[in-house]
Model the fold of this input.
Amino acid sequence: MEKTNKMTKGTVAGIIANLVFVEVDGPVHQNEICYIDLEGTKLMAEVIKVVGTQAYVQVFESTRGLKVNDTVEFTGHMLEVTLGPGILSKNYDGLQNDLDKMEGVFLKRGEHTNPLEDDKKWEFKPLAKTGDVLEAGGWLGEVKENWMPHKIMIPFKFEGKYTVKSLTDAGKYTIHDTIAVVTDEKGKDINLTMIQKWPVKVAIKAYKEKPRPFKLLETGVRVIDTLNPIAEGGTGFIPGPFGTGKTVLQHALSKQAEADMIIVAACGERANEVVEIFTEFPELDDPRTGRKLMERTTIIANTSNMPVAAREASVYTAMTIAEYYRAMGLKILLLADSTSRWAQALREMSNRMEELPGPDAFPMDLPAIISNFYSRAGFTYLNNGESGSITFIGTVSPAGGNLKEPVTESTKKAARCFYALSQQRADSKRYPAIDPLESYSKYAEYPELEEYFRENIDPEWPEKISLARDILIRSREVSEQINILGDDGVPIEYHDRFWKGEIIDFVILQQDAFDKIDRSTSLERQKYMLNWVLDIYHTKFSFESFEDVGSYFKRMINQMKQMNYSEFESDKFKKNEKELNSLIEERKAE
Amino acid sequence: METKAFQKIYTKITQITKATCSLKATGIGYEEMAFVHGRLAQVVKIIGEDVTLQIFSGTEGVPTNAEVIFLGRPPVLKVSEELSGRFFNAYGEPIDGGPEIEGEERQIGGPSVNPVRRKQPSEFIPTGIAGIDLNNAIVTGQKIPFFADPDQPYNEVMAMVALRADADKIILGGMGLTNDDYLFYKNVFDNAGALDRIISFVNTTENPPVERLLVPDMALTAAEYFAVDKKQKVLVLLTDMTLYADALSIVSNRMDQIPSKDSMPGSLYSDLAKIYEKAVQFPEGGSITIIAVTTLSGGDITHAILDNTGYITEGQLFIRKDTDIGKVIVDPFRSLSRLKQLVIGTKTRADHPQVMNAAIRLYADAANAKTKQENGFDLTDYDERTLNFAKDYSDKLLAIDVNIEVDQMLDIGWNLFNKHFEPAEVGIKQEFVDQYWPKN
Ligand SMILES: Nc1ncnc2c1ncn2[C@@H]1O[C@H](COP(=O)(O)OP(=O)(O)O)[C@@H](O)[C@H]1O
Ligand SMILES: [Mg+2]
Done:
């Protein structure tokens, strides 16, 4: 949009909650941002529908006190984020306002804060040379952001090829200093700084190709890594009734997953859960680098009491920031809790606009919106041959815990890993409550990943995993039969089979997210423990009565849990292991 | 009734429905308050010159030529120390015969706390009830409801918790409270000599239901005054939030909005979250803790009100009658305090989390044994022992008439483990077993 164009203005014609009708005096475009003047306070709003000379706008703030005839100014652009060094470790709201820069205890309407620092000097190091020809996303240089090399790139909005005419020397610069001059294909020179803007609803496509994911993303959560692995650049979702552990699981992933950067979008959920991150992450160590977790984390907080319309913006803001860092060749993990709140915000607005409702009154195009969003994740090869990835995991909060509802069903079509949290498991405190049999990872079946497992974990890994699954299935089957026929109505072998599944459940699947040691398990240790439970599975035991079976296996489980609670291969671990060995000898059949 | 010179007065109503009326007016602010025929009303929709008002006490008898006076401001409450010890209706008007409150006028339903200005809650609130302190410890700044069938003594339990919690102010928001329950609260607070630190905003069953919609915001505006301005520890009691949600659905249905599940408005989650998220711990020491009651409709735990509440609050406390021991207990299965891990094992004894989990696991085994028994199967020795354990556990720890310190609760737990089980069956970390397993 050219600056010479006279900006469109308007006046408020009607108000229903945060839906406002604006009579406009010129052209407006869909999703354009405007500001409504409420006695000097500028309320930000987005055009969501246009009928004749009336623009329907959703306001990102409370409309209390707004009057008909209040004036509106249109900006000519869509909702944009500012991209540049300084994003890492920030706490933003859904519209990228820096929450720490806001004054006072309460959020003030119309307060907008700078997402970056104007005066801070960054240590710049050129990467490109004069004469280099680059495209959008091409690396000109880098600055150290915390400890990460933050690439300064040709802006994503630039089309075609650009020749580097000049580049500043290494040194300290602010984000507004010119660090390069590039020449476009028509010979026009353009000065570049360290920052650029991008509209959040549009995917950044500054990469060469997006292959199928082919590597494991380690999370330290056993039921994920071992049984339902997620790939780097993959997508997954966690549906579950309230209280079944969605947020605890996401927090565990954000602490432990092997990624360069974590972006957490707290979308329409509890403020205290974000406070937990604010409070703990600056203190907690990143197990891989020894630095503080906050140094690799950015938080986008639009909690349930913050403006409903900004929930949608918050997930897009988070995704756009993830795409920006992916273009630097980094490995990003993006988490959103909960995507259902975003869908509900869409529903509230669609109802207010009296649109024809789809299932459960959600908008008709909900499935398309969700799959479009998930498709922005992925592993990418950049134009310069480097690679970067966004792994995305969202939670879903199904109404009444019923998985046959529109958000869950739409997400199931879009995401490749399904981590179903079961109420029953949560009730019996079998955490994480991921149902091992309902859940799946489509990546586990990718030949690329199978190859990766054989090479990097164990040549027999895929077979072992499918055996572990079979054991769990058979255990569940016999448990149903025992329930019908009674403990003594089935052969003793049935009890043996049942308990061998329980061992996998207690030792591999269950994991205490609040225990210093148990909460994160290295792949090596996961392999070690899986081999243990499979060895036990292959061992024949002799029992006189079914009552012996349960109490014997319980002792075994107890012993192995003590192992889980001890440092891997420590004396304590080995001592428990020795006791486990002698326990096995007690009943080992010939 | 306050009327001032600058207020706009109209006398021509163009449309009347059960809960709303419309008229032509200009210069009106969204959510502005007005008097329609002497009744308090609020602007809910403006389209050009057509302004729609929601009349809190209903539209019965409102004539088309009724006087409509716009007040030029959203709903407000006057706040000052004078609020202490007083009883108000949903509009914040005294109902105890005392004088009007002098103080600063504050808009109710005001802005949210910036999340980075919050502090992580970390102060344990002991209640003496093991079903809460042992299994579902609550902390200042938390929001947690009791989920209960309408015939359970939830108001009694809540009053007990409120009085035992060491709060500077207790603010009662009563919605659809029966007169008897209202008097009950008044009585217990009085008898406890606590009246001067209690503030009540009450809508009883005798008042129009839509008025209830103002109660939580009134109570929480008062709470914010004491927690922010006076840095006090404030406990807010909201009962019954199901009746609040019912009032929401009355309004939205009358305004022809598309209902979602259980004929609740599609915005129910956001509406409830705005209330509950007022719970907060401030770094300067002030806090707002919300304990609410949500009654079940026909025992339906998937009902939209309960479901949305569960997604918003930091846990829930299910109370029910345990027929085996004939007492009301806090059910350990469905109950949850999401903030308990901030205090248990650190602010309380280190064995707390493990004792809690082990006992609940054994209680779950007892539930399985019971199903077996009911299906006519023989019980094993272990089954029998879990059943005996469950009875003891329910009686000595889960029952709401328990009133002891956390250390005692833990000791009782260990004694029950010892009485019924071997250490391996209990599955607690060896170091705790070594330290606490009773030696006999
Ligand atoms: N892995 C886990 N280990 C131990 N406790 C857990 C675990 N996951 C969940 N919990 C318990 O369940 C509660 C609810 O979990 P949360 O993640 O907040 O649920 P949701 O987000 O699904 O509503 C937590 O407060 C905690 O007590
Ligand atoms: Mg959650």
Notes: The two ends of chain A are 82 Å apart (CA to CA). Chain A is about 30% helix and 25% strand.
